[in-house]
C-alpha cells in the first residue's frame, strides 16, 4: 500500500478500515543470506538499502524487543552534519543528503524539519574553534554561518547573553540541520524493507553466535537456531554483549544518556540550540514540548534509565542558557544505552571473524547518521568494500592509532 493524500482521503471515507499493517509478522526461515541483529534505525536502514540499492532481499532483521524500542525511539531527534574532521565530515553530509530525500524515497512521513542547529560560543577561544569548524565544513561543501552576538540575539532574545560565567558571544549555525521524528524513521525503514521482501522478526533475541571452523554460520535465538551467510551486528548499546557471543571484545563502553520533555508551551524556539559552556541542547516539538538533554550519566550501565545527579546537571545548564526554564515543568524523562567508542567515532567494518560484520560505536550521535550508516553498512555487506565516505570507520584504527577524535578528548569514552 502506497501512502498519499488520496489514500488518506479514500480510507477516511471508508471509515479507515482498509489500512494494512505497515509490515508483516513472518516466522523466521531456517536460513538467510544476511541476518542483521538489532531492529533499530541502523539495522533497519541497512536492510532497506540492501534490498533497494543492492537487490539483496533474503535478509532478516532480528529484534529482541519491538521496532523502535531502542535508541531510535529514545533520542532527541537532532540531525546535523557540522563535523570538523575529514573522516567524519563527508559521511555525515552524505547522511544529511539522504535525510533531505528520505520521505519521498521510502514514502513515509518522517517529519524531516531542517529548522537549523545553532551551537553557542562563550569565549574568544571557542569562537576561533567554531570558525575553524565552520571553515572545514564549507571546504567540504557543507553550509555553515558564524553569527555574532547581535545576530543570535535577534533570533533568540530570551537567552542569558550576560550570564556572569557564560556570556554568549555568538554561535555557529547550520541551517540545514534540524530534527526528524525519530520513531517514524524506524517505521519508514521497516515498512520499506518489508515491502522489498526483508523479514522483520520482532521478539526474537539473539542469545548466541554459532561458528563452524571459525566461520559464523548462524545465531541461536529465543525462537531457535537461524542459519546465515553473513551476520551483521547493529545492536547499538548492546554491541559489546552481542559481539562477545562470538568471542570478540570491542573498544566500546555502554553508558546511559537521558532525555527530557517539558509540558507544552507556545512556540518560542524555532530550531535546535546547544549551550557551548556545558552539555545542553534543546528544541521544541510540534506539540510544544521542549525536548532537551545533556551529558551521559558517566558510568557504565545497561539500564535504560538514568540518575538524578545528571538530571540536576542538565537543569543547571539549561537554566544558565535560558533562565525562564526554571518556570517550566518537566513531564517525562527516559534513558537509552549508548555504545561509546574510545574516540567518539563509529565503526562500520568487517571483523577478524569470517562472516561477521560490525556497525557500532555511535555514541550519542548516531540518530543523525542513520541513513548513511545503513547505506554504508549495506554497501560493505554487498560489495565487501567500504563505501567511500566510510573508509575511516575501521575497527583496527584503535590498534593502529588512527583515532577520529572529533572532540579531542583522548581515549576516554565517557568524555566524548
Ligand atoms: C536520550 C538520547 C538522546 C539522543 N539524541 C540524539 C540526537 O539528538 N541526535 C543523534 O544523532 N543521536 C542521538 N542519540 C543517539 C542515537 O539515538 C543512537 O546513536 C542510535 O539510535 C543508535 O542506533 P540504532 O537506532 O540502531 O539503535 P537502537 O534503536 O538501540 O537499535 C539497536 C537494537 O538492537 C536490539 N538488540 C540488542 N541486543 C539484541 C539481541 N541480543 N538480539 C536482538 N536484538 C538486540 C535492541 O533491542 C535495539 O532495538 C540519542 C540517544 C539517546 C538515548
UniProtKB/TrEMBL annotation:
Cofactor requirement: FMN; FAD
Cited SUPFAM superfamilies: FAD-linked reductases, C-terminal domain (SSF54373), FAD/NAD(P)-binding domain (SSF51905)
Keywords, in A-Z order: Cytoplasm, FAD, Flavoprotein, FMN, Nucleotide-binding, Oxidoreductase
PROSITE patterns cross-referenced by the UniProt entry: RHODANESE_3
Identification of the protein by name: Sarcosine oxidase subunit beta
Reaction(s) catalysed (UniProt annotation): sarcosine + O2 + H2O = formaldehyde + glycine + H2O2; sarcosine + (6S)-5,6,7,8-tetrahydrofolate + O2 = (6R)-5,10-methylene-5,6,7,8-tetrahydrofolate + glycine + H2O2
Similarity annotation: Belongs to the SoxB family.
Protein localization: Cytoplasm
The protein's enzyme class: oxidoreductase
Domain Rhodanese: 34-78
Pfam families linked: DAO (PF01266)
EC number in record: 1.5.3.24
InterPro entries, per database record: FAD-dep_OxRdtase, FAD/NAD-bd_sf, Rhodanese-like_dom, SoxB
Amino acid at each position: 500500500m502506497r501512502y498519499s493524500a488520496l489514500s488518506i482521503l479514500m480510507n477516511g471515507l471508508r471509515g479507515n478500515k482498509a489500512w494494512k499493517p505497515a509490515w508483516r509478522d513472518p516466522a523466521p526461515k531456517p536460513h538467510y543470506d544476511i541476518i542483521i541483529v538489532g531492529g533499530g534505525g541502523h539495522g533497519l536502514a541497512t536492510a532497506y538499502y540492501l534490498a533497494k540499492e543492492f537487490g539483496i532481499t533474503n535478509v532478516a532483521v532480528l529484534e529482541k524487543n519491538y521496532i523502535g524500542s531502542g535508541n531510535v525511539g529514545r533520542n532527541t531527534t537532532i540531525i546535523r552534519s557540522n563535523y570538523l574532521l575529514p573522516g567524519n565530515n563527508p559521511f555525515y553530509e552524505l547522511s544529511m543528503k539522504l535525510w533531505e530525500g528520505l520521505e519521498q524515497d521510502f514514502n513515509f512521513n518522517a517529519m524531516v524539519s531542517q529548522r537549523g542547529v545553532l551551537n553557542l560560543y562563550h569565549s574568544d577561544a571557542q569562537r576561533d574553534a567554531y570558525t575553524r569548524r565552520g571553515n572545514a565544513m564549507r571546504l567540504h561543501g557543507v553550509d555553515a554561518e558564524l553569527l555574532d552576538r547581535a545576530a543570535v540575539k535577534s533570533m533568540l532574545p530570551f537567552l542569558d547573553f550576560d550570564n556572569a560565567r557564560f556570556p554568549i558571544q555568538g554561535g555557529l549555525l547550520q541551517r540545514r540541520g534540524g530534527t526528524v521524528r525519530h520513531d517514524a524513521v524506524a517505521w519508514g525503514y521497516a515498512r520499506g524493507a518489508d515491502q522489498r521482501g526483508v523479514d522483520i522478526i520482532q521478539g526474537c533475541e539473539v542469545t548466541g553466535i554459532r561458528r563452524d571452523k571459525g566461520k559464523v554460520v548462524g545465531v541461536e535465538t529465543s525462537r531457535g537456531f537461524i542459519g546465515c551467510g553473513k551476520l551483521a551486528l547493529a545492536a547499538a548499546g548492546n554491541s559489546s554483549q552481542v559481539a562477545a557471543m562470538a568471542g570478540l571484545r570491542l573498544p566500546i563502553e555502554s553508558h546511559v544518556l537521558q532525555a527530557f520533555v517539558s509540558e507544552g508551551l507556545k512556540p518560542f524556539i524555532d530550531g535546535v540550540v546547544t549551550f557551548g559552556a556545558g552539555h545542553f541542547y534543546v528544541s521544541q516539538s510540534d506539540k510544544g514540548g521542549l525536548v532537551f538533554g545533556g551529558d551521559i550519566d558517566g558510568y557504565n550501565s545497561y539500564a535504560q534509565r538514568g540518575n538524578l545527579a545528571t538530571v540536576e546537571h542538565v537543569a543547571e545548564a539549561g537554566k544558565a542558557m535560558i533562565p525562564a526554564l526554571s518556570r517550566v515543568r518537566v513531564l517525562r524523562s527516559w534513558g537509552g544505552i549508548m555504545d561509546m567508542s574510545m574516540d567518539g567515532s563509529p565503526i562500520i567494518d568487517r571483523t577478524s571473524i569470517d562472516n561477521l560484520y560490525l556497525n557500532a560505536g555511535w555514541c550519542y550521535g548516531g540518530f543523525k547518521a542513520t541513513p548513511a550508516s545503513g547505506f554504508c553498512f549495506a554497501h560493505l555487506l554487498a560489495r565487501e568494500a567500504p563505501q567511500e565516505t566510510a573508509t575511516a570507520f575501521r575497527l583496527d584504527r584503535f590498534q593502529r592509532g588512527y583515532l577520529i577524535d572529533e572532540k579531542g578528548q583522548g581515549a576516554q569514552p565517557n568524555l566524548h
